[in-house]
Amino acid sequence: MADIVQVKRTPLIRAPRACSRLGRLVLGLVIFLSMVATAPPGAMAAPYAAMVIDARTGEVLHSRNADTRLHPASLTKMMTLYIAFEAVRNGEISLDTKVKISRNAASEQPSKLGLKTGQRIAFRYLIRAAAVKSANDAATAIGETLAGSEAAFARRMTRTAKALGMSRTTFKNAHGLTQKGHMSTARDMTTLGRHLLYDYPEYYNLFSRRSADAGVRKVPNTNRRLLAAYRGADGIKTGYTRAAGFNLVASAERGNERVIATVFGGKSSTSRNAKVAELLDLGFRRAPSRAKLRRPARPPYQGNRGLGTQLASAGDSTPNGAAGKTIRVSGLVKTSLRPKGRPASAAPEVPTLLAEAQTDTATVDAPTIETPTAPSEAAPKLDRDVLQASITAAIAEAEVIAAVAEQASAPIAKPRPFVGLRPMARPARLAENQTTAEPEPVVVTRLSTSGGRYWGINVGRYGSRYQAEKVLLRTALAEMATLDGSLRKVVRTPRGFDANFLGMTKESAALACRRLSARNITCETVGPS
Questions:
Q1: pTM score, two decimals?
Q2: Active-site amino acid positions
Q3: pLDDT tens digits, 217-232
């Protein structure tokens, strides 16, 4: 029995080492192939594409695979935000509209703001979260609010893209997570970035903020490293999925030059930022120091199509918290219908009665009328007072006509002496009194400008018109005592936007500056030039 056991164990103990190594190699190869076969497409290196343009003119300074359709990732939110800005400008929604978060929006994958189903939040906070935090739930909520559903909003995004000239872009969602058919190119995204810069400059400062208040919490900017590391960088949007790689559309301004660079398919955020910095440097080297600004043409307003002609009021509730939408129906009235004439049978026969009355004026001694005892069945029932007044007026008109005719044919009679009461003559004592002559008016040919309302104050210079107007409004509310009646005006200069209060006297301008300086508000008086 022991021998049998020994024979069974011998092959196991003396197995060749080469066979065991070969087995391990085969097993490892099988495992590797199975991992490659089951790995998601994003696990492989994403294709690379790049584009650099002179933002002032749109001239292409560098391109590589710029027309290759690739996954845009969160660069998609640039279009979501563009349509949001467009909707606010056209009165489709306001920044303070409270939006109800749907279950679909709340269930989006990270990156997200953390919105809850049924939560209500101001539309402005959704914009901030999508622009700064790149929050997917906020982007979906924007799309559902403006179009009723994410699919309808994606169709609107594609229509807007075509209107902007983004011919190789199609959208399937509002956030940019990988989805079949959701594709764009480096050229198209560069075009979109340029339109964001010039079509909505009042919102562009969102993309340069290191952080922003998104209502529920303060969120950091996903592009803060490039903004801090590259001189002149002020936007625009990052994007990442495994299928897309690390994407970025960046813009920077130095002096009179502005360059936009786009990268698709970066291997990491660090290498992507380094590549974008390299492309921006290339753009500044190739861009002319001076160039005439040629703003891109703003596309026609797309709005929402295919929703019928039903109008929703702003107070109506919708499943996803969408604000009411106004659908404008174009077209001119081709025909103008006139009202039909009154039927002859319905008109009272007053002219007939008046004619009969005029023929009997010779026998009528007084403008009175007897009530008939047995009126005809065909005669209309008229109010007695109304009929009597009509007949009286007709008789008077006939008498005037006859008198005029008789006067025209008869010789001119001598005027009859007046026998009525005459006015009494003015007393002699009053007639002799002479009225005191009023002094002649003095004509002023020139007024002194000393103390005139030709002064004003300046409360700072800002990077955008929106910031300057915001400071003017806040300052006016804080200092109503001295600034009431003044004119708020933003003056654009080569170095920024000056916030001014104009139409003040020298004394009131000085007083306003003293009061504002006491509150640590920058203020300078501006005199007449």
A1: 0.54
A2: 74, 77, 134
A3: 999 999 999 999 999 9
